Amino acid sequence: MIEIFGFPYIAQMYFSPLKLALLILWVYICLYTAYRVQFSPLVSKERRRTASLFGIFLGPFLILFLLFYNVVKRKEEGASSTLEILKEQFRSITRKISFSGNKNSSMIELLDSSGRSLSDIYGHGRGGRADQILDLTKQIIFDALEEQATDILIDPKSDASYALRFRIDGVLSTVEEYDVETCQAVLNSFKAVSNMDIAEKRRPQDGAFMADTVGGKVSFRVASAGAVHGEKLSIRILRQNASQFSLDNIGLSSKQRLLIDKEIRKPSSMILLCGPTGSGKTTTLYAMLNEIDLYTRNVITVEDPVEYVLDNASQIEVNPKAGITFAKTLRSILRQDPDVICVGEIRDEETAGTALRASQTGHLVLATLHCNSNAAAVIRLLDLGVSSLLIASGLKLLISQRLLRKLCPDCKLKAELTPTQKREFLKKNINFQNIYQPSGCDNCRGTGYRGRTAIFDILILNETIKQQIANNRSLIEEMRKSGDKKGQSNLFKQGLKKVVSGETSLEELKRVVG
Questions:
Q1: What is the CATH number of the domain that holds 456?
Q2: Rounded mean pLDDT of the chain?
Q3: Which among 478, 472, 421, 415 has a CA at the least distance from the CA of 448?
Q4: 3-state secondary structure 168-187
Q5: Which residue range forms the structural domain that includes residue 159?
Q6: In this structure, is residue 245 part of a structural domain?
Q7: pLDDT at residue number 94
Q8: Are 313 and 327 in contact (CB under 8 A)?
Q9: E-assigned strands of 19-124?
Q10: Do 269 and 391 belong to one domain?
């Protein structure tokens, strides 16, 4: 046996680079598992310490077991080959590990409207409690962006505690609870960077700030209000990249896609998007704008606020305090030779009338309106004071929409349908073999859903419908009585198609449409 410095060569193999790398990987997986358990919403606070200890000692075995279980389950559901499933799982694990490794408040910087950072506002090198509060403030924003949240709510639960909640895929969930002292300090940090008065805790205030991240700048809109047990803060996340939206990936069927594509290519028309708050109208609006050639057409938008930056388009933000309203801005836009006009929201008679007249004078007009259905949109315009003749002559396309959460592809299960449900599906010749229900896993934060898709009810105003709107009052009364039910029925049919294709669940469809 060869000796090196008096030691046998075989003893040196215990410290080979390969074995050392495997040891480091084993320790890292153990620590990673403990970390995921510690912050998992599936583990109660009382059991997190015990669960973390199990994670430290059994982490690699747990991951291998879950990997094996997921492969078997996916194979039973008729998924692709084992190799493809393993590749997908390893990509998911790698993505999770990279996110957890970057989960650091130093990866993000909060800036006020003038570009000053939160650290500059509070001063450098204060140390101790102040630095902890600043790090926690940044961490909250970092977590919200990582989870793809649209809103951050900080609510007083009692005189002793506050709840931090994220709205993810349209549903609020509690992320953490803080004591009053900590949360009030965090609230003051958000108010300071938003240029709000820290001393004022009762009257409502509005503000805004930005976050400089690895992926670019993200804007935030902040609103505060006094509540029973303290001060409430609401933060809306306004992601700036509009190029991600396309008519191909928002949930339109091929027939609906062709209808919209045909209409937005016309030189003059008016498309009105309808739906309640949070139904994805703005996303659809930008998806349409992304289909328009912004180099050859003059596109001007009026919004409150500008939620996404659109390259090569003129975007105007409404500011009522400065006298910049939708109606006034829309009138001035008509003198700027626009080809396409986008109105963020129709709120009054003047805005509605100006937009409808613009569609008659050679402009393509895209707008949104808060209402429940296409029929309700016509009624809403009449209630605003717009004449039925103007509505009939200017409006060309009505689109009502809702957002449905998509089932998590990693954990969805075959739906357990009742005999009554099966009979109903068979009666309507609907194949129910691909209907799934939510389960819950780490990838979807235990909700069973990940991401959202839209369903649409599209109404083309042909000459017959226009004449009925302009001349037939009985039609309007009929729309008042049965229009919402018909629109809801059409949305339900569109949603049911996504249910039977395994994209969403029956429970989600009933929750959104009814």
A1: 3.40.50.300
A2: 82
A3: 415
A4: ECCEEEEEEEEEHHHHHHHH
A5: 106-238
A6: no
A7: 53
A8: no
A9: 109-111
A10: yes
Q: How confident is the model at residue 95 (pLDDT cuts 50, 70, 90)?
A: very low
Residues 130, 69, single domain; the answer is no
Same domain for 475 and 395: yes
pLDDT value of residue 126: 54
What the block records as the tokens of 442 is 């780490």
Q: Nearest CA to 128 among 185, 62, 178, 69?
A: 185
> What pLDDT was estimated at residue 123?
65
Q: What is the DSSP letter of 445?
A: T
Residue with tokens 């320790």: 27
DSSP string, 245-307: --TTSSS--HHHHHHHHHHHTSSSEEEEEEE-TTSSHHHHHHHHHTTS-TTTS-EEEEESS--
Helix (H) or strand (E) holding 141, with range, is helix 129-146
The percent helix, strand, coil of the chain (3-state, each to 5) is: 45, 25, 30
Specify whether the CB–CB gap between 328 and 321 falls below 8 A.
Answer: no
Cis peptide before 17 (omega within 30 of 0): no
Report the helix count and the strand count for the chain, using DSSP H and E. Answer: 17, 18
If you search the block for the tokens 């009030």, which residue do you land on? 184
Q: If DSSP codes are grouped into helix, strand and coil, which group holds residue 22? A: helix
Q: How many domains does the chain have?
A: 3
Q: Report the C-alpha gap between 507 and 437 in whole angstroms.
A: 8
Question: For residue range 269-290, what is the model confidence (pLDDT) as tens digits?
Answer: 999 999 998 898 989 999 999 9
Whether residue 371 is contained in a domain is answered as: yes
Contacts for 127 with CB less than 8 Å, ≥ 6 apart: none
Bridging pattern class, strands 109-111 and 205-213: antiparallel
Which tokens go with 205? 């205030």
In angstroms, the first-to-last Cα distance of the chain is 79
- Band the pLDDT of 102: cuts 50, 70, 90: very low
Interacting residues of 63 by C-beta distance below 8 A, sequence separation 6+: 29, 33, 93
What is residue 434's three-state secondary structure? coil
Rounded distance, CA 253 to CA 268, Å?
A: 24
More confident position, 82 or 156: 156
Handedness of CA 290, 295, 296, 301 (dihedral sign): positive
**Is the same domain home to 353 and 497?**
yes
Alpha-carbon span 95 to 214, nearest angstrom? 16
